[in-house]
Design the sequence.
């Protein structure tokens, strides 16, 4: 079965960087884009960008450009999202999600990674 | 401020039918892009509930249905059950932003 397993919670200081991993299984990793979505505590979902595992091509929301990098490791079928220059308002749960290119929806999600930015 | 607009909360008694709206614009829902719905139970990740406006993934009960009209989409839940209490999020594509957009989420309370 399709699974996306994310790394554990992180606590970071303002200005630091965080790198969240998303290990996939149960499907051919190169065949589906991985997207990243974040959620403030109790708030709505915010789309951050996408990565094509096959080509490594990426696309980021303008708000995060210059601070985010999405990468992958083909040998372990793992996607990564690094966010730099962290601010207090980056405190959120970060999700990876598999993108279904047929309907443009997110058909499977990781369990989420809480990133807390605190001094 | 979310691109798609949902009511913050809705409620209904067990057995009743509720409808959650998702209002967009001419650059997303009104441009013909599909709408998808996600159910997020407390403390868990979102789960795909409806895709392509009105399709249910395997395992989703037919009590859940979706529709789209003009610049809005709707999620209907009939025969409400206590386990339906969750947050519901709509999602589409926006051509002006060249990416996915979400609604702010709607909290469903089963009275």
Sequence:
């Amino acid at each position: 079965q399709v699974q996306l397993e994310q790394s554990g919670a992180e606590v970071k200081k303002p200005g630091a960087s965080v790198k969240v991993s998303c290990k996939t299984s149960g499907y051919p990793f190169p065949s589906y884009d991985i997207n990243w979505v974040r959620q403030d505590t109790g708030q709505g979902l915010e789309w951050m960008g996408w990565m094509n595992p096959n080509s490594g091509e990426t696309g980021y929301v303008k708000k995060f450009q210059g601070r985010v990098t999405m990468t992958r490791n083909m040998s372990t079928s793992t996607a990564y999202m690094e966010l730099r220059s962290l601010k207090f308002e980056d405190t959120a749960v970060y999700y990876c999600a598999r993108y279904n290119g047929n309907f443009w929806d997110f058909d499977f999600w990781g369990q989420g990674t809480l990133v807390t930015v605190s001094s | 401020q979310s691109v798609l607009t949902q009511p913050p909360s809705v409620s209904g008694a067990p057995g009743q039918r509720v409808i959650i709206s998702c209002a967009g614009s001419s650059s997303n829902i009104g441009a013909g892009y599909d709408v998808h719905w996600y159910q997020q139970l407390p403390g868990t990740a979102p789960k795909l509930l409806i895709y392509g406006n009105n399709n249910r993934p395997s395992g989703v009960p037919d009590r859940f249905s979706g529709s789209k009209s003009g610049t809005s989409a709707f999620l209907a839940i009939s025969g409400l059950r206590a386990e339906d209490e969750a947050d519901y999020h709509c999602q589409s594509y926006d051509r002006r932003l060249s990416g996915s957009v979400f609604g702010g989420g709607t909290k469903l309370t089963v009275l």
In short: Chain A touches chain B at residues 35, 37, 43-47, 49-50, 59, 61, 95, 97, 100, 103-112 (CB under 8 Å). Residues 97 and 109 of chain A are 4 Å apart (CA to CA). Chain A has a mean pLDDT of 96. The radius of gyration of chain A is 14 Å.
